[in-house]
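Provenance and format

Records in this collection were gathered into a single text stream. Each protein contributes a sequence line and a token line. The two records reproduced below are adjacent in the stream.
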Amino acid sequence: MVGGKTAALFKTCAEVGGIIGGGSPEQIEILGQFAWDAGIAFQLIDDYLGATANEEELGKPLYSDLR
């Protein structure tokens, strides 16, 4: 689930940036992998905060990101 949400979005954005920037296929692949990993990390932290923070700190209902 995590990969299908944030990680895929991060990866696509990074790869498009690499293409627009004239990167080589290898550079684009590296950008995509880095962004995928960053997206996984971002989503894990967001889900953790969604389960442990209070609603006032988070600004949204607890567990609202977990589906």
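Adjacent record:
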Amino acid sequence: MAPASSRRPGHSSTSTARTSVTADEKGGAGPIGAARKIIHGWALLGGCVLLAVVAMNMISVIGGVVWKPFPGDFEMTEVGVAIAAFSFLPYCQLTYSNVTADIFTSRASPRTIAFLTAIASIVALLFSLLLCWRMFDGMLDQKEYGYTTAILQFPHWMAFIPFLISLALLAIAALITFGENAAVLIGNKSDD
């Protein structure tokens, strides 16, 4: 897998050492810049959730040896890891950090790569909208039925809220990456 900088639209794999940074790469201004900052913050929040899960598991293991284990630690691990994983999806889309098969595109032109990446952005957008729709219905069902975890009695439907936020941010990230690649395709962004 190539570094993210070589897969960005308008950037060839040989131009990773650049002298100028665009406003878009600094975070940008306007709604796209705000969306980028929110997506970055959401991923950082997901990382904090993952660190909290690790800390909770450490406390539970130490507590099991010394005192008493943390009750329901596996339930909170399941929820926390799922929330963290979903929170990373928009960031991976936005930074072109998804897994790619570079063997097929290693000799392709930047426009060809931009075309393929634009298609991937559309797929990510459709995927996020489909999942958002189905998970919203699932959340309503979980709430209506009153499902909870066995030990902590944590309502299942509450875990769906960060999933839905992540999927909405994934849709926004897919729109941003589609726009970047469309700019390369129509020639508004030059290859460095």
